[in-house]
Every structure is written in structure tokens, then in C-alpha cells.
């Protein structure tokens, strides 16, 4: 990577870090990235509102290859002392999306200056943290006849500057599930005159271990209870409303769907038994991120040819990522570049993206662009 391009990418990363914006609020971030590409490249810019992409039109144009970066931040306070620390209280780039976008821009500089035999699409995506960003951007795949798409994420707890790759499932599917139940209030001294949802909710919770048991699933299935909210702190009133909130998660998306169906079935059965109203709500939905072996093999090939350290992942990450929306529509692979075994974890106060990963990411993308 040209030293000047690396310097520009690092400075861009620091600028983005100072101005973090939450999912679906990335107005300054999006425009700043567009302005950077307009200033330093001749790429075509396509503005799609919340997100955008840039295009390098090759004179040969053999294939249409896309590379994606996310650019939203997290509702986490910046507590470490950085010369480019967040200017916005309670919001910071504690997942490294500032580094992902800076890497994609550095890659764009290199392609714009040096050319490529393929048409290259640089996709800048909003709202990865909430799961709706890629769902909205996925129209990009068919609209541009994308043949293949690649992306990467920095990751802690693994070897520094080493590319980690896997075939098939790379990250679990997940979603937030809420079960609402409503009965009838009564005086606490006369519970028989009301309908309290507590017993129904308790039985749903009691059924969860059976649904997620390894004996009943081919992959890991998880159901994490995040909140149980029943009634109010009023000792004279028999509770009549309750909500059970869970994160359901599975290595294989079809098994997450099966878990959801089992929970809905159980809730409806208990509601009918007790005479309760029941409804469901879902949010922050992430598909299974599943890599195509052909695309993962290309990552392996580039690492070998360029001498980039590489390691095979033995299992998928439980955390979710919305990149799977793209690989449902075209070939692609999502890989990881290590921050180091002892580096602070993502989404922690102590975390900050490592600038030295930018060049590794750019060189990986450059190699993939030519295949």
C-alpha cells in the first residue's frame, strides 16, 4: 500500500472516530466518507440515502466484485484517553467500524490510482449494529449484478494481523424476541378474580432448556433471557400484564426459526389455558452469516500469495453480523483480522481499532479484486 494512501486512511479513521453516530443516525459519517472519495478519487458515487456505494469502472470489466464496510457506532462512553477521542458523550466507535470504513477508502484510493481488470464496487453500509443495514442495502446485489462480495471484521482474542477464515457458517443467526401477555387485574387479596400472566410466563421459561438441548439440535442453539417484566411495584394489585424478552440465537438459521416457532407455540398454548391475550415482537434480526467455500478459498489464496498470516477458524463466532444478507444473494465470504490474543474485546471501554490493521485489510482486498 502506498504510504500516502495509508496516511490518508489513518487520518480518516481518526476523523470518523471523533464523530461517532449511532445506527440509522450516521448523517455526518456518510457525507464525510462521500466527500473523502470525491476529493481523492474519480470513482462514481451512488447515494442511496442512508447508505452509498462507489464504483470503479474497469476498461476490461470481467466481473463485478463488491467489498463492504459498515460505519455505525455504539452507545458506549469513550473512557480511554485518545488524541482523537469521541466528541459525543455516550457514543463511540467501540466495534471498529471506523477502521473498516477507513480500510475500504484506502482500498478505493489504491484501485482508483492503479486500476483493476474487474469492476469494483465499494459498499458503505449503515446500521450493522441493529441488523437492518444490510437488509436495506441487499438490493445493491441484484441491481448491480454483483458476482461476489467480501468483507472483514477486526477481532480480539486471536493472533494479531492474522486473517482468520472459515467455510460455511461464520457467525450465528439471532434476533430479539418479546412475548407480551395480558390478563385481567384484580385486588391482590382476590387473585382468583383476575388473570395473572406470571404462571404462563414461568412455564414458557421452564420449557426453554428442552428447546435448546443439544439432543434436539444439530448445532448450538441459545435462548438468553434478557428481561422478565410482570406487573408493577404495587402490593395491592394482582399483576395483569407481562413481557418476556429473549435473544434467540443459533449456528444454523433454520434452527433459530424452529426455536422461535416452539416458543410461539408454547406461549399460545399457555395463553389459551389461562385466558390471556398474547402477542409477539421481533427486532435486531440477524441472519446466519454463511461463507461460500469458493470465496473463502480466494481469501486463502491471496494470503498465501502475499505472505499474509492466515489461520483456519474451527468454529463460528456466536456474535451476529448482518453480512449474511448478501451471501444469500451471491457468492461471498466474510473473514476476520486479529487484534491480538490479549487485546481489549470489542464493545468494551478499553477497545480502540488498531490502525496497523488497515494496510493488512487493503492488501487482502487488492488481491481479491484481481481474482
TrEMBL record:
Record: residues binding Mn(2+): 95, 97, 129, 153, 347
Occurrences of domain Peptidase M20 dimerisation (ranges): 170-274
Cofactor annotation comment: The Mn(2+) ion enhances activity.
Reported cofactor(s): Mn(2+)
Keyword Metal-binding belongs to the record: yes
Keywords: Manganese, Metal-binding
Pfam assignment, any one: Peptidase_M20
Spans traversing the lipid bilayer: none
InterPro entries named among the record's database cross-references: Amidohydrolase (IPR017439), Bact_exopeptidase_dim_dom (IPR036264), Peptidase_M20 (IPR002933), Peptidase_M20_dimer (IPR011650)
GO MF annotations in UniProt: hydrolase activity; metal ion binding
NCBIfam families: amidohydrolases (TIGR01891)
Name of the protein described by the UniProt record: Amidohydrolase
Amino acid at each position: 500500500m502506498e504510504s500516502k494512501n495509508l496516511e490518508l486512511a489513518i487520518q480518516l479513521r481518526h476523523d470518523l472516530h471523533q464523530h461517532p453516530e449511532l445506527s440509522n443516525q450516521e448523517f455526518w459519517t456518510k457525507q464525510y466518507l462521500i466527500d473523502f472519495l470525491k476529493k481523492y478519487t474519480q470513482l462514481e458515487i451512488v447515494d442511496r440515502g442512508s447508505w452509498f456505494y462507489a464504483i470503479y469502472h474497469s476498461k476490461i470489466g470481467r466481473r463485478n466484485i463488491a467489498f463492504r464496510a459498515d460505519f455505525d457506532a455504539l452507545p458506549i462512553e469513550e473512557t480511554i484517553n485518545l488524541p482523537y477521542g469521541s466528541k459525543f458523550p455516550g457514543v463511540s466507535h467501540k466495534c471498529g467500524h471506523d477502521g473498516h470504513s477507513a480500510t475500504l477508502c484506502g482500498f478505493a484510493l489504491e484501485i482508483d490510482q492503479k486500476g483493476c481488470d474487474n469492476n469494483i464496487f465499494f459498499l458503505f453500509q449503515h446500521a450493522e449494529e441493529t441488523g437492518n443495514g444490510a437488509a436495506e442495502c441487499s438490493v445493491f446485489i441484484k441491481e448491480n449484478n454483483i458476482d461476489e462480495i467480501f468483507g472483514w471484521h477486526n477481532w480480539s482474542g486471536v493472533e494479531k494481523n492474522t486473517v482468520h477464515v472459515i467455510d460455511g457458517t461464520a457467525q450465528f443467526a439471532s434476533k430479539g424476541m418479546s412475548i407480551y401477555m395480558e390478563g385481567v387485574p384484580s385486588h391482590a387479596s382476590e387473585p382468583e378474580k383476575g388473570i395473572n400472566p406470571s404462571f404462563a410466563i414461568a412455564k414458557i421459561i421452564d420449557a426453554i432448556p428442552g428447546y435448546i438441548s443439544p439432543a434436539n439440535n444439530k448445532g448450538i442453539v441459545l435462548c438468553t433471557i434478557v428481561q422478565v417484566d410482570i406487573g408493577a411495584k404495587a402490593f395491592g394489585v394482582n399483576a395483569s400484564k407481562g413481557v418476556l424478552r429473549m435473544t434467540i440465537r443459533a449456528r444454523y438459521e433454520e434452527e433459530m426459526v424452529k426455536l422461535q416457532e416452539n416458543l410461539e407455540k408454547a406461549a399460545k398454548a399457555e395463553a389459551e389455558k389461562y385466558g390471556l391475550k398474547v402477542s409477539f415482537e421481533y427486532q435486531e434480526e440477524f441472519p446466519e452469516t454463511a461463507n461460500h467455500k469458493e470465496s473463502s478459498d480466494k481469501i486463502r489464496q491471496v494470503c498465501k500469495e502475499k505472505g499474509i498470516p492466515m489461520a483456519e477458524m474451527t468454529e463460528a463466532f456466536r456474535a451476529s453480523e448482518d453480512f449474511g444478507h448478501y451471501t444469500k444473494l451471491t457468492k461471498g465470504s466474510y473473514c476476520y483480522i486479529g487484534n491480538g490474543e490479549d487485546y481489549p474485546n470489542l464493545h468494551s471501554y478499553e477497545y480502540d481499532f488498531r490502525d496497523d490493521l488497515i494496510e493488512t485489510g487493503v492488501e487482502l482486498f487488492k488481491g481479491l479484486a484481481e481474482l
